[in-house]
Amino acid sequence: MSSSSASSASAISSSLSTLAQNYGATKPARVKLIDVFLLALVLAGIQQFAYRVVVTSFPYNAFLGGFGATVGQFVLLAGLRSQVAPGRDAEYKHVSQERAFFDFCAASVVLHLFAFNFLG
User: Fold this and answer.
1) Using CA atoms, how far apart are residues 81 and 100, in angstroms rounded to an integer?
2) Residue 88 per-residue DSSP state
3) Looking at the predicted structure, is the pLDDT value of residue 70 above 90?
4) How crowded is the C-beta side of 53, counted as CA atoms within 13 Å?
5) Positive or negative CA dihedral for 110, 116, 118, 120?
6) Alpha helices in the chain (DSSP H)
7) Nearest-angstrom CA–CA distance, 8 and 12
8) Residue 63 and residue 54: Cα distance in Å, rounded?
9) Contact 97/83 with Cβ under 8 angstroms?
10) Cα–Cα distances in angstroms (integers) from residue 107 to residues 28, 71, 92, 113, in the given order
11) Residue 75: its pLDDT value, please?
């Protein structure tokens, strides 16, 4: 059993190494930056939810506003990533990357105005 689990661990390690090398070689810096921001938003959402569960939910509107803004920003950023990623020409050929970024910025401002208004 131990040789089987060692072989399995080696295969997983090799797969992850290949994945990281291919990701680094094929993705442009713009998409990598968006991916890092997406990861930061996921971690912020987990932190907010953990704080709400472990510590307190007293300012419940603050939790809803902050968590909703985090989830909304994640969704907007995922949409931007799908529009600026390589190979997007078939789906978004009528939308330039600059226009996609402007739409993302405008929607982010509206989202944060709603979240700020929700805080009370």
Assistant:
1) 9
2) -
3) yes
4) 7
5) negative
6) 2-26, 29-54, 60-84, 97-119
7) 6
8) 13
9) yes
10) 24, 13, 18, 10
11) 97
Q: How far is it, in rounded angstroms, from Cα 79 to Cα 104?
A: 8
In angstroms and rounded to an integer, the radius of gyration of the C-alpha atoms of the chain is 19
Query: Are 34 and 81 spatial neighbours (Cβ–Cβ below 8 Å)?
Result: yes
Cα distance between residue 25 and residue 1, in whole Å? 36
Residue whose C-alpha is closest to residue 35's, from 97, 70, 67, 81: 81
* pLDDT value of residue 120: 66
Alpha carbon 117 to its chain's center: 24
Contact criterion met (CB below 8 Å) for 49 and 67 = yes
Q: Which of 115, 25, 42 is nearest to 77 (CA)?
A: 42
pLDDT value at position 11? 85
Helix (H, G, I), strand (E, B) or coil at 28: coil
- pTM: predicted TM-score of the whole model, two decimal places: 0.82
Smallest Cα–Cα separation from 113: which of 73, 78, 83?
73
